[in-house]
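Hello K.,

You asked for the raw outputs rather than the summary table, so here they are, unedited. I folded two proteins back to back in the same session to keep the settings identical. This is the first:
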Amino acid sequence: MYIATSRGADAAADVPKSGVKRAVTGNVVALGLVSLVTDISSEMVTAVLPLYLVLGLGLSPLQFGVLDGLYSGVTAVVRLVGGHVADRWQKLKAVACFGYGLSALGKIGLMLAGSSTVAIGAVLAADRTGKGVRTAPRDALITLSSDPEHLGRAFGVHRAMDTFGAFLGPLVAMAVLWLSLGSYDSVFFTSFCIAAIGVIILVVLVKDHQPKPRAERPKVSLRETAGLIRQASFRRICVWAALLGLVTLSDSFLYLVLQRRWELGAVFFPLLPLGTAGVYLLLAVPFGRLSDRIGRWKVFLGGHVALVVALLALLGPVDGGILAVLALVLHGVFYAATDGVLMAAAGPLLPEHQRASGLALVQTGQATTRMLASVLFGLAWTTWDLHAAVLVAAGALAVVVVAAAVLRPLRTYA
C-alpha cells in the first residue's frame, strides 16, 4: 500500500513560520474558486437541459436517458487519458486548464447545435470530454497539496466551494431565462462567459505541483497505470465505486421525477438543484472532517443509504412539497458524503507520481457505470412506468450498499 509522504513545493509553501501545517492549503482554496466559477457556468446548463431536451425538443425518456448517459459517462475514457498525460509529463495544471477550456467552448456549441439531437450529443460529448480531462489532474493537485490525514477536510472545502457555484448556477439560469423571455441561447452564452472567467482564474492563481528533477522522475507508462489495480485495497475501491455507480439514479432523472410528481412549471424547474446544492454546501466540510475521524468508507456508504431513502420518498403516497423537500435534502446528503470523500479515500493508496492516473481509474469505472445506469433507467421508465422504475432503482441500490458494507474494501485512511 502506498501512502504519500510528500505534498510538493506548493503545499510546503503553505506551512506557516510557526511550523503548524494548515489543514487546507492556499492551493486547495484557489482550485475551489476555479470550481466555484466553473460550476456556476455548468449548472446553468444542467438546470435547463432536461426541460430543453424533453419539453423543448420532445425527446422520449429513453432518448433522454441515452443523452444523459452520454453527458455523464463520455468522460470515462478521457479521464484515463487526462490522468495519464498529466502524470506522464508532470503537467497537472496544464492538462486541467485544457479541460476547463474545452468545456467552456462547449457552451457555444450548444447555441450552434440547434434542434439536432446528433449535434447536441456531439457538443455534450465535447463538454464532458473537457470535464473528464480536467477532473483527475485537479483532484491530484488537491491530494498533493494536502496531508493524507486532512484529505477529507480538504476535499470537503473544495467541494463546498464547488457546490456554492452549483447553488448559484440555477439562480443565474432562471434569471437569464426570465430576462430573455425564455431564450435558452441566452443561458448558453452567459454560461460560456462565466466559464471563461474560471479558466483565467486557474491560470493566474493555481500553483502547479512541482515535480522532482527530470532525471529523478519515475517514468509513468500505461502498463504501470494498469498495474495499480493489482493493489488489493485500491482494486476493491474501484470495483465497489463502479458497482454503486451502476445503481445510482442520475440527478437529471431525479429532478424530472420530482417535476412530474410536483407538476412544477418550466420556469421554476431550475430551482430543484438548489435543494441538493444547499444541503451539499452546508454538509461537505462537516462530512469531510467526519470521514477523517471515523472512516471514509463508512461515510461514503452512509451517503448511498441517504439516496435509497430519497428514492423511496419519491414513491411516497402523498404528492406535494414535503416529499420534494425531503428527497432534495437527502440527495444533498448523498453528495456531501460521497463525492469528495471517495477521492480522499483513494488518494493515499496511490504513489505520488501516479496520483492523477489512479484517481482517473476510480472515476472512469464510476462514470462508465453511471452512463449505463441512465440508459437502463430510461429504458425501465419507457417500458414499465415511472413508479416501477424508481422502485427497482431503490431496491438495487440497497442491495449493493449492503454488500459493500459487509465486504469492507479499505484498511488505511478508511
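The second followed immediately with the same parameters:
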Amino acid sequence: MNGEGGAGALREYLLTILVAALVTYLLTPAVRRFAVWFGAQAAPRDRDVHTIPTPRLGGLAMFGGVVAALVVATGLPEMKRVLANGDITVGKALLLAGGLIVLIGIADDRWEIDALTKFAGQVAAAGIFIMQGIQLYVIPLPNGTPLSLPPTYGVPLTVLVVVATINAVNFIDGLDGLAAGVVGIAAMALFFYAYLLSKSNGLTTLSGATLTAAVLVGACAGFLPHNFNPARIFMGDTGSMLIGLLLSASTIMLTGQFDPALLGAYKLFPFWVPLLLVPAVAAVPFVDMLLAVWRRTNQGRSPFAPDKLHLHHRLLELGHSVRRAVLIMYFWVGLVAAGLVWLANTNSQLLVTSVTAGIAVAGVAVMVAAPRVAARRAPAEPEQPQPPRSREPANPL
C-alpha cells in the first residue's frame, strides 16, 4: 500500500468535496421551502438572539450532499479502493448511521423530542459504526507504542467519542454559520493532516478517514452560504448531529492509522494528533458544554436546561456583532488546527510554536480592541441594523 494514491487521489478527493458542496448548496433552498411547509421552524424565544421564525432541517440538505459525494466516489478509480476495503465498510457505515441520525434530527426539529430519545439514537448510530468496523482498536501510549484495545474497552470508548463529539457540535450551534464553519475547519485539518503525513512518509493517501473528512468539508462549505449571518435556514439538530457524527468517524478511523515505527522516533507527535486535533479545535464547544453542565447543576437545574450564558452570548455582550463573533471563533479554531497540522508535518517545533503564539497575541489584541473601535465609529458611520437570526438548540442532547 506504500505510496498509493498521489495526484490522482488528490484530484478525486477534491472532486468529492466539490460534489458534496454543490449538491448541498443546491438542495438547501428546496429543503428550506419544505421546512416551512412541514412546520420545522425555530420560533424566537427569550434566550435566543434571533428575532424572526427561521426554517430548520438544513441538515437534510447536508445529508443529500454526503450521499451524492459517496455515490460519485464509488465510480472513481482511486476512491473505489477505499470504499471496497473489507475491514471497514465506510460508505455503508456513513449512510446507515447518518440516515438514523437525520431521522432523529428531523423529528426533533419538528416536534422537539426528549433528550433521552436523542441520546439513545446517538448510541445506536455509534453501534452501527462499530458493526461496520469503525471502532477504536488502538490508542497511543506516551512512548508512541500502540496499545491494543479489546472490545470490552474499545466499544464503550468508541460510543463515548461519538456521543461526546455529536453533543459538542450541538452545543456550539448557537450563531449563524458557527457550527458549519468550526466543523468545516476541523474536517479540513483532519484531511490535510492525513493526506500530507501519508504523502511525506511514502504511505498510501487513500483511507476512509480522509474520504470522510473530505465529504464533511464539502457538506459544510455548501451549507455555509445559506447559513451565514443573516441565516436563511438553520441546520437544526438534523445537521449538528450529522456533522458531529461524521467528525467522530474520521477521528476514530485516523486513530492508530500511522505506525510510529514507520514515522520514526522523532515523529511521535503525529501519532497523537487524531486524539488531540478534534478536542483542540472543538475546545470551545467542549469547554462551553462542561461549563454549562456545571453552571446549571450548581444552580439546582437540569444540566440540559437551556440558558443564555454560552460563550457566543458573552461575545455579543462584549459588543461584537453576530458576524464578528462567528469570525472570532473561526480564527481561534483555524489557528489551533493549523498549528497542530503544521507540527505534525515538521521538525521545527520552536518555529511553529513561536509563530502560533505571535498570531494568538495579535488575535487577542484585535478581539479586545474591535468593539471599542466600532463604538467610536458608530455615531459617524451608523450601521444598518440587521436582526440576528441565530439560535440555541432546544435540547443540547
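The first strand starts at residue 41 and ends at 42.

Happy to rerun anything if the numbers look odd on your end.

Regards,
P.
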